[in-house]
Amino acid sequence: AEPEKVAEVCRSAAPLEGRVVKVHRDVTQPEFRWGFVTQDSIGRVAQIEGSHAYVDFPQQKRWHCLARELEVEPIGDEVKMGSTVRLRTNTNPSGGWTSMEGDETGTVVQISGAGVVVAAMGNMWCGPIGEVEVAPEPEDCKINEAIVPALVVKGAVKRLANAAPSDTCKAVLGHILTQACAKGPPFKIMLRGEKRKSVLRQTGAMDLLKIAGFRIVKGDNFKTRTLLESNNQHLIIRAKALHLELEREFGTLPAISDEEDMRYKVEITVEKSVARSAAKDFQELWTETLEGQLKPALAPPQSVWSWPRRGWETEEAFMANLAKELPNGKAVVARGQTKQHARQVISVLESVGLTAQTIEEGKITGDEPAVGEDPVEIIVSREWGGDIPLDSYVRLVDVPADSHLQKIGPEAVGVVKAQYRTSEADDFVYVVNFPRNRAQHVRRKMLTIDESSQKIKEGAQVKIRGSAQPEFGWQGVESSDLGVVHAVQFDGTVLVYYSCLDRFFLGTLAGLTTEDLPKVLKGNCPICREPLARGEHLGTDMAVQAQVQRLRNLMDGARVQRNDTLG
Fold it and tell me: For residue 516, is it left (φ>0), alpha (ψ between -120 and 50) or beta?
């Protein structure tokens, strides 16, 4: 039978299996208790057995209930493999924003339990299926038309209003549109710190700016700054229309504050004995005392930081400045800091007995990286470029000895899912998903297309490559067994059907081959007597045994399992 017809039959036989659901609104106490699940939890039905259901929720897998206690959650139920999705309104993503900031959309590349993996602009996003929704088709705002339909403008402002934007967001949007009206195209504006967050992490804000032609051009890896640009020839007219509609909805927009753009340096004051020690032998003072006092303040444990973000090109530049200034009794240890970050540094310095103060440096301006910002910029490309296509199977080559990619090794084969450029590289950086090592950012010079894996596709016959232990173990098969690829997943893992298993075999692109396959008999289906589709000889006894084992597992107490017990 055709796969679509088989899927339709299965869906009608078990209508909830695989669907996205919530606990029915009328249920106050589920038959098998709540466990860690709540009325607001959104999950996906893993299995229906008669009147019983087992649901994977983000809070609890295999949550046991009666099927009648569930109802379909319509927004999440629309999300399928290949869907173009965006974050839901007012979602604060549990797995972080990564590439879904700024009302960005991405393609669903995996659905596993209650989780989804989305390939978006320049990166991967992972999170619960209940945090995303299918994105509508973009509104038709043709670049050569000055007047955008009023319904489009009103709809964008209404979506923003429904998400309850902060005063900072409203102030920044008002400032951007006012400046755009005054200056016209091309117009650029750099958003930093809280101003950046207020727009890029606010549902509807960036979608509104897109009507005026604004696009994200570049940013930094630490997501502290983002450059927006509009080259739309009708920028002034569109910006005025959007500003007017914003004020109709919210009233007079708040004034923007410059406080977030102010920068400060942190200066320490030391005792005379310490200053004399610095003049006599700075390296000894650093090793024995200062390193243990200053580094925890500049690089707190578990924090994401770099020397440029503390105002120094390198650690050597920081130490050279310290050696120069400290003999005078004072020394600057951080530059270009926001007031919040400066206070955090001072708090740690004072906790170890040092005296420190903030000194105002002035307002940060311009589109280029400033002191206290990481100089490496990520340049956004909306069109796929380079010589490695999307979804290519690749290996690592010429990886430097000190690179974190060494842990992956040259044998692993991964799948390319995103790309971007940086200001320090002439070529693309590719986001590659390897088994056990997802979302690795790799420069072009360290990648090569793996030709031997290109034939491993859905429906291909494969066997385990060689006799060495497979990545995820043998799982009940042998190297001479013949399997059929069910799916190649986004991270280079492969689901393979073997008739002797009651589940899919989990393999890798590197661990399977389509070459030198064992010859098999061409059998007929024992039920309909038609020739088997791909020529395998059906191991009827093994297939039956696998299903018997599955039934035994189901009958072994699962149907009375409560959600608030471990036994």
Answer: left
**Tens of pLDDT, residues 454-512:** 999 988 999 999 888 899 999 999 988 999 998 888 888 999 999 888 889 999 999 99
Token pair 């990886």 in the structure block, residue? 399
Q: Is the CB of residue 218 less than 8 Å from the CB of residue 228?
A: no
**Phi, psi for 63 (deg, rounded to 5):** -70, 130
CA proximity to 195, closest of 255, 111, 152, 284? 255
Q: What is the pTM of this model?
A: 0.78
Q: Which of 424, 428, 427 is nearest to 416 (CA)?
A: 428
Report how far apart, in Å, the C-alpha atoms of 401 and of each of 306, 360, 409, 425, 444 are: 21, 42, 11, 19, 17
d(CA 44, CA 21): 6
- 3-state secondary structure (DSSP) of residue 359: strand
As a whole number of angstroms, the distance between CA 374 and CA 214 comes to 24
Q: What is the DSSP string of 283-350?
A: HHHIIIIIHHHHHHHHS-TT----TGGGT-SSHHHHHHHHHHHGGGTEEEEEEEE-HHHHHHHHHHHH
- Backbone phi, psi, residue 180, to 5°: -65, -40
